Amino acid sequence: MSDKRERDAYPTKSGQSRKVGMSTFLIHGKAQTARWDFSHHTVPPLSSSVTYRLDSAERGGRGFLQFGRREEEAEPVYIYDRLDEPTRSILEDDLAKAEGGEVCCSFATGMAAISAALGILLKPGDHIVAYRTIYGCTYSLLTRWLSRLRIDTSFCDFTDLEHARAAIRPETRVLYVETPANPTMELVDLGALCNLRDRINAERPPEQHVHIVVDNTFASPYCQRPLEWGVDLVVESLTKNICGFGTDMGGAVICGRRYEEELFMYRKDFGGVLSPKAGWGIMVYGLSTLTLRAKRQTETAFKVAAFLEQHPKIAKVHFPGLPSHPQHDLALKQMRSTLGTFAPGTLLYFETREDGEEPLCARNLINWAARHSYCITLAVSLGNIRTLIEAPGIMTHAALPPEAQHAARIAPNGIRLSLGLEKAEDIIDDLAEGLEQA
Length: 438
Ligand SMILES: *Cc1c(COP(=O)(O)O)cnc(C)c1O
Hints:
CATH superfamily of the largest domain: Type I PLP-dependent aspartate aminotransferase-like (Major domain)
Oligomer: single chain
Bound molecules: pyridoxal-5'-phosphate
Number of domains: 2
CATH topology of the largest domain: Aspartate Aminotransferase, domain 2
Strand order of the largest sheet: 3-9-8-7-6-4-5
């Protein structure tokens, strides 16, 4: 490369020209370019920058001061990816809207989001009352890790709020539930639970208030928006229904503005941020198609539930959409899609009819699916475009000891099915063939 090429003149940030070498230019490019103007994009930009040019020390200072209090109108000052970042913050604005919350703080995974929500609410000596039927890793987080910080958890049956109320102590700060429960599809009445919290909090000073945290991963904001019932914080895995394609992991906490600063500070210091590259896919492909996918998957769940319920080798089908579900009326009230229709979810849980102690029929069906099915995949996770089958007792919920599984009503012959986007009739054909030989 000639000397001349090596020292061309390029405009500086203030518009004057400056001679620099090509190697320098290739790092800085044209310092000012309309290419940074994202306002004309139809697809949000996949921004990937760890650190941000701050224009002046004062603007940098303002960014640090503003951090954790993201006013909607204020011009964002991005400083460093772990603090805040454009692609992720666009996704957060969209998710906050989807769940009907004021703010959203995203995380690298659903578990990072759950840890953060509990992390900002609890300190040593505090107590949690949790639904006894919860995601295996959440159970492990409470029993293995939070217990080390002297944060105890009582597990109880939130389908009976009297049972939950009896477990609440003066030092209880969090009521933690999943509805529909994973995998049993039992429901918690969120309106009634919020009334219970209000009655308790009315007798306590604000620093001793009880907060309700709901994991909305199973339903997704398409089927149910717990914040509308008065819940304090929603946590969810973006890895499941919201990403939908099984390509990226993520998590989110959605809540009122009063938790915003603590959440963003917690994320900054514990560091479990969502990668902007993952966030971009979740936003551009996942969130934008959520209602379409979830609507179709819910319709399929109705058809598959009806097929299974009449099958002689099936003892019981747990699906809030079936009139035989003990909480069908609650489902009709609480699980409404963003379109206003009945949306009892995209998952089923069912129990095979077994002759002896061993769950042979269940095992045979699952192993048949793993080897011979065309459209049912043996895999954990849920809310995927592919139909996924698994045995909670020995897979997703293996972290629960046998007594805890029994209390959570997780049966050895229980099978969880997460409906994908395949044609319902094709899924039913596969199940029929699998049950035939089971
Ligand atoms: C998968 C899942 C989580 C955890 O989400 P990750 O993104 O895998 O960390 C939490 N809760 C429920 C109900 C889940 O299904």
